[in-house]
Amino acid sequence: MTDEQPETLGSPTPESGSGLKRDPEDWVTGDEPMTDAQRSYLDTLAREAGEELPADLTKAQASEHIERLQGKSGRLRGSSGNAGDGGDT
């Protein structure tokens, strides 16, 4: 048996309904290199925000940057266009 909770790649999705939102710093594998999916999404978000991010982020660091940049850009995963910034139509 294990006490480990599943991790979320990128940022947690509120629509999952599981109520599990663990701080990335508490992730068992948070210190591993970010995934290819995180890198791709971060590249997109950073480009839109006019930022450059280091290529050697951990999973936890990548998740934190994704969450921050989503808020900055008005992009929210699982959002139904109600980000508050007018969103894209």
Segments where pLDDT lies below 50 for 5+ residues?
Answer: 2-19, 80-89
Q: Which secondary-structure class do the elements indicate?
A: mainly alpha
Strand content: under 5%
| Strand count | 0
**Helical region count?**
2
Distance between the termini: 47 Å
Shape: globular
Please outline the major beta sheet: none
Task: Please bin the fraction of helical residues.
Answer: 25-40%
Give the SSE string. HH
Indicate the mean pLDDT: 72
State Rg: 14 Å
Mind explaining what this structure looks like?
It is a single chain. By secondary structure, the chain is mostly helical. α1 (36-49) packs parallel to α2. It contains 2 helices and no strands. It has a domain at 35-74. This is DUF3072 domain-containing protein. Pfam families: DUF3072 (PF11272). Residues 1-89 are annotated as: Disordered.
Topology:
Layout: H1 36-49, H2 59-73
Helix pairs in contact: 1-2
Compact summary:
This is DUF3072 domain-containing protein. With 89 residues, this protein is an all-alpha fold. The chain has helices spanning 36-49, 59-73.
Features:
89 residues; mainly alpha; disordered N terminus; disordered C terminus; DUF3072 domain-containing protein; DUF3072
